[in-house]
Design a protein that fits this description.
Elements: E1 2-3, E2 5-7, E3 10-12, E4 16-21, E5 29-35, H1 38-56, H2 60-76, H3 78-89, H4 93-113, E6 120-123, E7 129-137, E8 140-144, H5 152-163, E9 167-171, H6 177-189, E10 197-199, H7 204-213, E11 217-223, H8 226-238, E12 242-246, E13 251-255, H9 261-273, E14 283-289, H10 290-305, H11 325-341, E15 344-347, E16 364-369, E17 384-390, H12 393-401, E18 405-406, E19 408-412, H13 416-425, E20 430-433, E21 449-450, E22 453-454, H14 464-467, E23 468-476
Parallel strand pairs: 1-5, 8-9, 8-11, 9-10, 11-12, 13-14, 13-19, 14-17, 16-17, 19-20
Antiparallel strand pairs: 2-3, 4-5, 6-7, 7-23, 12-22, 15-16, 18-21
Length: 477
């Protein structure tokens, strides 16, 4: 059965269909999904623009009830949805179920936020005049999401957009249409009015370009690669659109001399390799004090040796497959680059043969690396991490901040003094102390600094900064 795009409240076939298969088992066909052409995207944008006046003026309770129904259904179906997510993206089944649960909770959180939109009232400096500051929705929002969190990231963009009264045109990553279609189906059955939410699956060069360039789209929220994000940012700014970009990371984890070794190893293992390392917040640079370096590496290699790399659906799997053939080739390319640069591969880095044909890679750990190497400058986005030896804490902080990125950072230490110092000196938008750099809550801000992010933060109540505009009103009493 063909899974269709949702445009103006109708399921439409699109110009052609693409097959969605599992990276754990390339013979496992998840489904066939319609691909939109430029005309389909134009119709979706027109439908969203036409629906905006009614949706933006609907009562907050009406919007809240719809979002609550969506969240409730996703939570009720989290195991079923998680299984589809594990099949199409490659996360282990427990990770995938947890992501589905998170998506459901995000929709329910923003069902509450729809009822809590605040304004302000001030006295003017002029007698007899009152000032009101009102938040209003932007209009049509273009949402473009990546493949690594195929239901959570769409949820944390779509839910606030709708909660605050905007309409949406949503383009998911080509690699993971299944979870996107589920969101559209649940929203449709929850009673979302025609045109308020539109799903247009297909190639970024077609669908994404139309969204970014359309004068009817007032804001674009994008998560993905740095080159694509920068291009979208320029195009949006040239057209006077609001833009929100979440891009790459090359996240440091400092292991201080006083770190609890077991805690440090567990934090590094989780942050670097869980979800196959395919998280923008993954710990890809492990910056280790010389005093603890050798023991840390020894224990981390031992822990890596216990990881089970296998089909994402199999019980006991710790690390699933790389998400695609192209991503696997990128990971292998960087492993070759690391060797050529003089880093030593202490563990992994080779293909794994499993019972099913998929993209299985043994998690890789480089040692004897320096911060100037490409493997420590460029985002690999796979189960590959590097250890950088430093002589002391001061050098560790300098190395941690020596990157064009600034998404997440972490430190493993038993010293309150070092923890307090690092959380102030770290040039990242999110700082973790004795917890993995990857793993965030849905009710607090998400985002980074430098080349990692541009525009207002995502998630929590701070999401309103992107999805609403301020209006100042003067009233003569």
């Amino acid at each position: 059965m063909l899974n269709r795009n949702l445009i103006a409240g109708e399921w439409t076939a699109g110009s052609f269909a693409s097959r969605n298969t599992s990276p754990s088992d390339i013979s496992d066909l998840i489904g066939e999904y319609a691909s939109a052409d430029a005309q389909d995207v134009d119709r979706a944008i027109e439908a969203a623009a036409a629906a905006f006046p009614g949706w933006s003026r609907a009562t907050p309770e009406f919007r809240s009830d719809i979002l609550d129904r969506v969240g409730t259904e996703i939570l009720a179906r989290q195991e079923e949805i998680g299984r589809i997510l594990a099949r199409e993206e490659g996360k282990t089944l427990p990770e995938a179920i947890a992501e589905a649960s998170r998506a459901g909770r995000i929709f329910r959180y923003f069902a509450g936020e729809a009822l809590r939109l605040e304004g302000e009232r001030l006295d003017s400096i002029r007698a007899g005049i009152e000032v009101e500051i009102i938040r209003e929705p932007e209009g049509v929002i273009g949402i473009i999401t990546p493949w690594n969190f195929p239901i959570a990231i769409p949820a944390w963009k779509i839910a606030p957009a709708l909660a605050y009264g905007n309409t949406v045109v949503f383009k998911p990553a080509d690699l993971v249409p299944g979870c996107a279609w589920i969101i559209a189906d649940v929203l449709h059955r929850a009673g979302i009015p025609s045109g308020v939410f539109n799903l247009v699956m297909g190639k970024g060069s077609i669908v994404g370009e139309v969204i970014v360039r359309s004068p009817r789209v007032r804001a674009v929220s994008f998560t993905g690669s740095v080159p694509t994000g920068r291009r979208i940012g320029v195009e949006c700014m040239e057209r006077g659109k609001k833009v929100q970009l979440e891009l790459g990371g090359k996240n440091p984890l400092i292991v201080a001399a006083d770190a609890d070794l077991d805690v440090a190893v567990n934090v590094a293992l989780n942050g670097s390799y869980f979800s196959t390392g395919q998280r923008c917040t993954a710990s890809s640079r492990l910056i280790v004090d010389d005093a603890i370096h050798d023991k840390f590496v020894e224990h981390l290699v031992e822990a890596m040796g216990r990881l089970k790399v296998d089909n994402s659906l199999n019980p006991g799997t710790d690390v699933g497959p790389v998400a695609s053939q192209s991503q696997l080739e990128q990971d292998l390319k960087y492993i070759d680059i690391g060797r050529a640069e003089g880093a030593r591969l202490a563990f992994g880095g080779e293909l794994i043969k499993a019972e099913t044909e998929g993209y299985f890679l043994k998690p890789a750990l480089f040692v004897d690396s320096t911060n100037e190497m490409r493997i420590n400058r460029e985002e690999i986005f796979g189960p590959v991490a590097s250890v950088i030896r430093v002589k002391n804490y001061e050098e560790a902080v300098a190395v941690a901040n020596d990157t064009e990125f600034g998404l997440a950072s972490g430190i493993s230490t038993t010293s309150l003094k070092l923890a307090s110092d690092f959380k102030r000196r770290s040039q990242a938008g999110m700082v973790m102390v004795n917890v993995p750099t990857a793993g965030v809550d849905y009710h607090v801000p998400f985002g980074g600094r430098k080349a990692s992010s541009y525009g207002p933060r995502e998630q929590g109540k701070h999401a309103r900064e992107f999805y609403t505009s301020l209006k100042t009103v003067y009233v003569q009493s």
